[in-house]
Design brief:
The complex is a heterodimer of chains A (about 650) and B (about 170). Chain A has about 650 residues and is mostly helical. Helices cover about 70% and strands about 0% of the residues of chain A. Chain A has 21 helices and 4 strands. Helix content of chain B is about 30%, strand content about 30%. The longest helix of chain B is centred in the N-terminal third of the chain and has 26 residues. The radius of gyration of chain B is 24 Å and the shape is elongated. The chains are: A mainly alpha (about 650), B alpha+beta (about 170).
Amino acid sequence: MESGAAFGDEAVIGAETLVSREAVGAMVTRYFVASTAVLFAAGALGVIMRQSQANLVRVSPNFFYAAMTAHGLGAFVAWAGFAVMGFGYWVLESVGFKLRPLAYGLGQAAFWTMVVGTVGIVCTTVIFGFGGSWVFLYPLPFHSASQWGHVTTAVFAFSVLLAGVSIITWSVSMLMAATGPSSPAQKSGVLNRMGVALGMAILWPKRFPVREPLPYAVLPLTVIALDMIIATLPLALLLVEMIVQAFAPSVTVDPLLAKNVLWFFGHPVVYLLLFPAVSIYYLLIPRYAKKPLVAGNAIAVAWLMAVVVNVIIWAHHVYLDYPNDTLQSSLNTIAQPLTFSITLVSALSLFSLSATIWRSEFEWTIGAKFLAAGLIGWFTAGLSGVVNATITFNTQVHNTLWVVGHFHQMALLNIGVVVFAAAYEFVPELWHRQWYSRRLGEWHLWLTLVGGYGMIILWLSQGLTGAPRRWAVLPSKYDAQTIASLAFIALIVLGQLVFAWNVIQTARGNRRERDELNLVRDEWQLAMVFCTAVIAIAPVAAVAIKRGNAKSTAAAPAGSAAAGAVLFSQTCSACHTLAAAGASGTVGPNLDQLKPSQARVLNALKIGGTGDGRMPANLYTGTQALAVAKYVSSVAGTK
Amino acid sequence: MTSKQLLITISYSIASILAIAALAAVFLSTGARHRAKTEHGKLARLENYWGYFVTGLLVLLLALTIVDIPYGKSAPRIAQRVRVIAQQFAWNIQPSTVRAGVPIEFTLSSKDVQHGFGVYEQNGKLIFQVQVPAAGEHVQTAVLTFPKRGTYTIDCLEFCGFHHHLMTATMRAQ
């Protein structure tokens, strides 16, 4: 598996030196192993966030948001994105597209850049507290409310920049491969080869003559490689600006422009995951169905359209930014029909793949089952995406947990599931050994699906009842669904542990022969069903016990200082510093320095603040106000 | 739920069930018994019709929904005017008591980062939201009528920092 050694046995076609199948396989293995490690790290952060919302073990708000930042970039870019970037090379190898040494070297460079970038992102967030969310909405990184420093922002921005450089490097290497020595184009011009790789030979066979038809799997890879170069360069500039601003605060950029630049990248990066996943579908579904992909001209037209539309529809992420009828509202309006048009790529691909499966002798391997599940995830996530893309519906669901449900549906239940499918199909080819256990693969499939759909349906329904997104502590009316989701998350976790065990045993060269035994007669299988149920119920039971205990211990009497402590942390701590309450807000005066009397606190609560920040009047009234006043006056400055 | 949320819930549920049923039918159709049949050409032609069908649906949805966009809405002369200044992590709403049933023209700005102005009815129903631009040249205006008397909660709906979830305020409609 040493890539350096593998360079020794390069295949020689004609006069050209091309990288061997073994060397490409070793590189793909690296991408697979590294991205799977990220899956576990990022997944753990996701579990921490949701259980904190359910109040099992509540983490501090800034840790929640730092974990959210790392989870978003980690799971999205450094797991799903990174995994399909790697498998993209194996798709090319599988359809006979060989790499020149330079394209291969760029693939290795993209790998290491992504690894270093990911380490930087994890350190700046989880360790140094950068909690600006993965969209780091400018100028939020420079308004941390004393939670992280400017150097942390600079290092975070640099780490994201490395991830961006990795994406660009990968894209260049993909384009080199698509237009390289294995291109079926008869003409040698690079533009002609690019046209062929974009499917133009299907539409205009005379202008783009080919020796043989282009394998469909090459199409989505070429489209996304081209678009990611266009989409990532402006973001790179913004990140450089942020690094400069960290050290020279007078350098700034217009926030609305920055938001557009972010989403100019943020939309296509979704397709950095989806399109290579589509290439895996295009490769594997015909393989399992034992017949060629059913595809007409329509799909070639759709992909050609996607090249352009992909990079001009970012405005659907800023539908609710329309300051005073500026150009932005026109951009937003046009984004709706444009976004609708790109759904045709998905609609036609879903048709092609379904038609290929239709009445075929489909071979239902574990990889095939994952792909079939992925098609369902793709279709249903596409439909929730149409809701988001419709401006009038967006006003209802924007920044609610519905959106969180939508993108987990797309990232986990479509793309993630395709990553698993690719692992089950490709690992035997890459490692020259069979999977340790097929049945553990089945467990992985069903635990992921049941857990995934349960978790996501709960998010969608919370969002449709107005539950806000990115709230470390949700209003209590959503508690029941949040707690219920822990059961489903436990199933997902168990599924991934089963997967990890299967990967490790496979890597060690073990095989489980008992797999072929009858399912019901196997006590081991029964034991696992039992354990699964326990694992799913455990977190829910733990929350129930904790809530029961909290109720049974006598609640602080209303109006007491102890009751005031709870009320203070719920509201006042956002803006005020009070060491006794662990509050470090900087908007309002520091209460430890002010040491207000009970009467002064009562008065402030009644009339509101008089300073610049203007604390609203009547935040608390009656006994609640009295309790807060008692508490603050008794503890201010004591710690 | 608002009527729009209900519409989304029902139509999304129906569409998803149809999608899953269609794919399930495809998966169940596989097996060795169809060995002799080759339907490749026919299916490839069907794809075009599927493309037209989806395009038609999308055009219909576009026509029905594009009329209801929130941009460029201007308030009638009788409107009440409310100025909202957001900052980490508090709202300054002047005045915070308004009349129910009369349109309000909100002028929203921020002293620091971006915020989201989300309006909830007392029962927790999200009735309106708009982004509050970060400090700079941009100011957002939005028109909204509070449908009935009572207390309304304002929650921040755009992530604005570590106490984002504590950034709430109330408004009263008389």
